[in-house]
Design a protein that fits this description.
The chain is an alpha+beta fold. The chain has two helices and four strands; from the N terminus they run E-H-E-E-H-E. It has a four-stranded antiparallel beta sheet. The radius of gyration is 12 Å and the shape is globular.
């Protein structure tokens, strides 16, 4: 199990991006949360490393048509054993 924090900037608010990410996470078995921030969205996600790799690729390649990703940053963060799955 691995935990990552994703930061995605660009036109990703008001275009169906968060529901898309939620559905993708559910389909792949990724746990976590997504939130809007001043520049775009932040995603805190947990799953096996190979699942998170697929999750990241799918976000970039399958984003809703009106979304425009300008920057996509991913960093591994310590896994919190108290966090719900």
């Amino acid at each position: 199990m691995e935990r990552r924090q994703l930061s995605i900037t660009g036109q990703v608010q008001g275009v169906g991006f968060r529901p898309f990410v939620h559905q993708l996470a559910a389909r792949l078995g990724v746990a976590g949360s997504i939130r809007n921030d001043g520049d775009g969205v932040g995603i805190d996600c947990r799953a096996a490393a190979e699942v998170l790799d697929r999750f990241e690729r799918a976000i970039a390649e399958q984003a809703p048509p009106l979304a425009r990703i300008e920057a996509f940053a991913s960093r591994r963060i310590p896994l919190d054993p108290a966090a719900p799955d």
